[in-house]
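Exam review. A common question shows you a sequence with its structure tokens and asks you to describe the fold in words. Practice with the pair below. Do the first one on your own.
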Amino acid sequence: MNNSTAAPSSKPRAGSSQPSEASFKRKRGVFQKDSSVQHMMYGFGDDPNPLPESVALVEDIVVEYVTDLVHKAQDIASKRGKILTEDFLYLIRKDAPKLNRCTELLSMNEELKQARKAFEVDEEKLATIE
């Protein structure tokens, strides 16, 4: 199917800055350099070496989803002037598995920050003792 004749899948919103079709196409191949999409597809049950067309399609879907999510978060945060993590959590609030996974990853990130901070303090103490 030719994308130039198909209607855009996302709803255009008044006052929002939607990327043009040309700028979206320039983002193609962002994840293919390190084959992370290919590894993700394999992790979710696909063939270890999926067709390049399949990888490109999944990448296009992911880039479109993330771009749309960021634009929606930007619309929410427009009064504040900057996007916060809570804006994304607000957008996915009705999708329980995504929300749970995001909160889990955010808490894990906070735990890792605290562990790194404690580790750096211990190294500084050891350096002053020696």
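Now try the second one, then compare your answer with the model answer below.
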Amino acid sequence: MIPPFSVPVYEPLPYALSGLSFTQLPIHTQRYLLDIAQSAPLHSPEMNFILDQRSIISLELFNDLIGNDTALVNMRYEAIVMARDLQTGISPQATAEWHMAAQNKRLHIVLDILLPERELIFNEFMIKFDALVWLDQEGRRKYTPEDWKRYRDALLKPILDQTSNRLVARDEYVRNLPVINGYNYRAPSLPYSPFGSLL
């Protein structure tokens, strides 16, 4: 039986842009706002513009995570297959030493490459997301920083939940691939896959 998939959880930093002027914002936030200023003026953003930008960056996040999600799922299933082969003795290579070396390589890929890459993808998204919340609060002085934090967290939660759901769905898709000749069908890695030569 395949163990349940443990989805990496992203914990964003608390919203900290309330009450800051444009020049007090972090430089990456300023750059993003200047980039989108070409589409709409910063001092009078329309709500539809902010909603549209939020949709754009959310789709970019989902697209940016596809490769990372796929690689995480592949690493998980390669570990499961190797453990099964070691237990049943199917593979002539599946000695305990070979298995340990392959497992260490896989852990290195997951812990030192894939998870930090995932964190960077989310961090880049959060710069843009928080910038849009800051833009949204322009001209609305009656709200407290705590109100804006709750507002930001409420907007963010469904997006983060969706990223987790997509990773679980990708895992379920791979788990439920049709069985051909008694073996789970797995598409071969493309020749240019960064993982093909590592394992």
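Model answer, second protein: Residues 18 and 102 are 48 Å apart (CA to CA). The longest helix spans residues 47-88. Full marks require stating both points clearly.
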